[in-house]
Amino acid sequence: PQDFREAERTPFPLKFPDRSSELNFLGLLNILNFGSGYREELHQHCNRGAYDTIAGGCIAMHISQTINADLLLNMKLVDIPQLFRMPID
Predict the structure, then answer these.
(1) Where do the H-state alpha helices sit in 1-89?
(2) What are the Cα distances from residue 77, in Å, to 17, 19, 33, 35?
(3) pLDDT of residue 1
(4) Disulfide-capable partner of 60 in 2, 48, 83, 89 (CB 3.0 to 4.6 Å)?
(5) 65 or 38: which leads in pLDDT
């Protein structure tokens, strides 16, 4: 089996400054996507499914900031709808 250093890079059109940043991105994407039970609600409110909503939000986070523990600890509830393009009713 290959280790991560030899594995292919992420299929997203993103540049990462180092492997740690890429792992943080992929880890967050997979943690948020794991067991998502909100597919129907996201389709209804966002016109996108769970994976598209989550991937889009993770990409927006990566583009705007470095994804790390400090970012996640300091994120405000008001940031979520903007990053993940979720309407607030």
Answers:
(1) 19-33, 39-46, 50-64, 69-74, 79-83
(2) 27, 28, 19, 21
(3) 45
(4) 83
(5) 65
